[in-house]
Amino acid sequence: MRIAYFILTSLPLLLTGCVVGTVAKTAVDVVTLPVKAVSAGVDATTSRKKADEKRGREARREDEQRGKQIRLADERCRKGKPLPTDDCAAVIQR
To answer: What pLDDT, in 10s, does the model give residues 1-17?
Structure first.
């Protein structure tokens, strides 16, 4: 009888810790949820910005390479040693 009384009286005290721990964890989850959502949005914006910057760098690099090839073709045409792929008629018109 005493054991049953002891178990019944201590049961609410034992469960209180579980409930408090669960409530505290839920409160932390509720508070951190908006922060996680905002940081995910910022990450998406940042990655989109980085992708745009990368495309811009690639485009500039291609333009520089094309310009270099045109300058080399111009120089070969002026020296009279063009490659078969050089369009010297376009160089003369410039």
So the answer is: 666 555 656 555 555 55
Residues 89 and 76: beta-carbon distance below 8 Å:
no
Cβ atoms within 10 Å of 70's Cβ, excluding its own: 15
- Residue-wise DSSP of 21-66: HHHHHHHHHHHHHHHHHHHHHHHHHHHHHHHHHHHHHHHHHHHHHH
**CB half-sphere exposure, 73, CA atoms < 13 A:** 17
Q: How far apart are CA 25 and CA 82, in angstroms?
A: 76
Token pair 């002026």: residue: 78
Nearest to 74 by CA among 92, 48, 60: 92
Indicate yes or no: pTM above 0.85.
no
Query: Which of 50, 86, 57 is closest to 70 using CA atoms?
Result: 86
